[in-house]
Each structure stands twice: as C-alpha cells, then as structure tokens.
Specification:
The protein is of the alpha/beta class and about 180 residues long. The protein has a single domain, classed as Alpha/beta knot (3-Layer(aba) Sandwich). The chain is built from 7 helices and 7 strands.
Length: about 180
C-alpha cells in the first residue's frame, strides 16, 4: 500500500469547487466562540459539499488566522454569510424552504441513527458550553442528537459537525 501524493487526489481548484453542485444542506453556527472550531466546520463543509454556512452572533468570520489554520482555505471555497441574530438566519432559511434542526440534547430529540433528512436541511450548532440558545431551539422544526454511551455528555462542536454532516451527506446522496 502506497500513500497517495496530493497531486494524485484530483482535487478541484477553489474556482472549480465553487461551480460544483452542492448538497441542499446548510449549517448555522450559533455563537461559536472558538475560531478553530469554526475553521474545522468550514473544512468538513467543504469536504461534504455543504451549500452555505451562516455565522451568527459572536461567531468569528473570515479572514481570521485561527479559522484559516484549521479550515486550510475552505473559508474561501464554502459560501458563508454573517448575521448578528441567529433568528434572521432561521427566517431566511425557512423562507427558502429549508427544514431546520437543532443539533442539541432536548426532549424528544431524534437519534441521528433514525433521522431521515428532508430534501432541504439546515442544521444549527451551538456554543461550546451553553449549546444552542433556547429561543433558537424553539424556532427549529426538530432536534437531532448523536447517541453517546460514555461519561461525557457532548462531543466537541467540530467533531459533532463532522459526524452529523457525514451522516446527512450520505442520506441525502443515497436516499432510502
């Protein structure tokens, strides 16, 4: 087995990537405090053809050296928009026909293993400690939770986003 050189991976340029058809999948970051987490979400979003990322509240925006460090320039390939109020992102998405799901531990959350995403899906990820604001949870169509079996009650937001985005990408790409 030989490790492939980067030139053998046939990766598109940023311009080619921008022209590719994206998944009907949008990410909303509600008050994410770590630029490294933000950058990681950009990188996962690039890998999985996420249509757009909304950066809301205290969530930092590019250009930022810490975002860039983990995004590896995905902040240039993935479309994004900053809105001060997460509620405004929710309004825009709902008017565009998206169903919006909190990725949060709430009553009656849907285990990721059982979740069947609608054709146009938006996912809200929240603050590393406080989670998604309750007023934002209240505006969602539902909530998704990753089943967990250890002593900790949460994943890091960048890990959580990677797991959720990969799962939903697969389900949208290969509907049942």
């Amino acid at each position: 087995m030989r490790k492939l050189h980067i030139s053998e991976l046939n990766r598109p340029t940023t311009e080619e990537y921008k022209k590719r058809k994206k998944m009907p999948l949008v990410v909303v970051l509600d008050n994410i405090r770590s630029c490294y987490n933000i950058g990681s979400v950009f990188r996962s979003s690039d890998a999985l053809l996420v249509k757009m990322i909304y950066l809301c509240g205290i969530t930092a925006t590019p250009p930022d050296k810490e975002i860039h460090k983990t995004a590896l320039d995905a902040e240039s390939s993935v479309d994004w928009k900053y809105l001060e109020k997460t509620e405004d992102a929710m309004t825009e998405l709902r008017s565009a026909g998206y169903k919006i799901f909190a990725v949060e531990q709430v009553e009656n959350s849907i285990p990721l293993t059982s979740f069947q995403p609608p054709e146009k899906t938006a996912l809200v990820f929240g603050h590393e400690v406080k989670g998604i604001q309750q007023k934002i949870v209240d505006l969602c169509d539902g909530a998704i939770e990753i089943p967990q079996y250890g002593t900790k009650h949460s994943f890091n937001i960048s890990v959580c986003a990677g797991i959720i985005l990969w799962d939903i990408f697969q389900k949208l790409k290969n509907p049942a």
